[in-house]
Amino acid sequence: MTRGLGAALMALVVLVAPAARAQGDATPKVLRYSFRVAETGFDPAQISDLYSRTIAANIFEAPLQYEFLARPFRYRANTVASMPEVSADFKTFTFRLKPGIYFADDAAFKGQRRELVAADYVYAWKRHADPRWKSPNFYILDNAKIVGLTELRNEALKNKTPFDYAREVEGLKVIDRYTFQVKTAEPRPRLLLEFTDGSAWGAVAREVVDAYGDKIMEHPVGTGPYKLSSWRRASKIVLEKNPAYREEVYDEEAPAGDPIAQAAVAKLKGRRLPMIDRIEIDIVAENQPRWLAFLNGEHDILWEVPNDFSDIAMPRNELAPNLKKRDITLVRYPRADVTLSYFNMEDPVVGGYTPEKVALRRAVSLAIDLEKEIRLLRKNQAVPSQGPISPSTWGHNPTLKTEMSDHDPARAKALLDLYGYVDRDGDGWRDLPDGRPLVLEYATQPDQSSRQGAELWKKSMDAIQVRVAFKVAAWPENLKASSSGKLMMWGVGWSAGAPDGETFLALGDGNSKGQSNKSRFDLPAYNRAFALQKRLPNGPERQAAMDEAQRLIVAYAPYKFHVHRIFSDLSHPWVIGYHRNNFVREFWKWIDIDVARQQEARR
To answer: What are phi and psi of 266, to 5 degrees?
Structure first.
């Protein structure tokens, strides 16, 4: 059931004390923005969706952060005083925080300023291991083999007792007030890449969690540039500048050959961050209202030009002349992501590892027409996927060719015929080998784009005489059902938080079922390849292990990997410094608003 209607919506409003206004009586700088999918909440230990994490990353801070404009991508110190010390064997990582960083004011602190200390990161990261929070990101710490952490979690699960935060864990411990240390059982050469994302690894104060308990999703309190001001679920989110945010200035470097980045640096170098006073995000699920809200100046940025309007906004992938006349800026970038449809490997119809089950999934995959999906649904703003690993991340193999991109209904039918998926009762639809009806159940959402995707799925399945029923629910509801293994099939996108392909291979990691691995795929050979590439430094041996993992996941087909998307954003001329970095969610702090020009355009 869709939330956020009528009087019921007002009952769900969460209000937080607003931040102080801009200096003096100056007109506040307000950025108006939209999400096309509703958020789920703002607790780093509980969220995994892109939209909730975009908000959380502007509230919570990880120890490290990516430079906004740098290419190739590189990260730097954020709340730490300098880059962490890493042992020669890549098993010990020591973080030293900058003194004098404070959390945003909150009633949980009882009127006292609350400084960020090492124990906040240790506590926040332990929360991912606490079964109470059902963290979708625990798999990252589990795969890192942080010494003692998984054992502490397993003890709580086995004994059905509360997670023991007080017990010191050798692999995640406080050294002194501003220093903490991470130790892993095996080498982890790329572990620091994980700790650049505040939406998952931001510091959380225990007092806040204790104060709000199970309502913590509604009460995010961090050290970041913004704080939550108000929230109407699935309708509107408002952030305001955090008055307690430390003094940070714009110090980005523009790469050669990027005039948009160079213009941003020229205008903003040395300015104190953040520059915008308030961020207002509307949830607008349908494409036409989002498009019109931007054209009419109601929204300052259009994040992801809807595919329905890409030919109008950027014919031949160039900004349309009428938009150029309005000084609108187009930013195009390949998203480090993959769109996919998963099969629940524990489902009695589509799951399993026996030849006939693999044949069913492969046949369904071969029936999907990616060329038509790219042309009709995505308006040529995507490229076919050969496997999970996206371009622009380490481990992507441009020479890899698999059947994942093939459209071959004849081969699909032959596979189904060979393994007994035939029409046994003469009704024109295929049945299971045991004679029961074969019906796929695909979860989807009520928005226009999802409806169009469902239409393509139905046409593809009709072509091979396979019935498919669509189970429609709001996105947050599908996410919850997916994590608990209750959906047979669902289509989603998976994005990288760092320029490394490991996050895509985690989609098949048997230790991460219900977290990154919504398909619940669990193949020993795959798990070995995944574990091997984690230990190895970047190089030919690691690439070979990643290629092997991709071949296995394609062969067993727990997923249909569809495309890697190309996104395009538009910004009005009064937005200064807008750009995109695939690995930075908290970009709002690096842009500014020309209020006079904004107001003039809205008169």
So the answer is: -60, -35
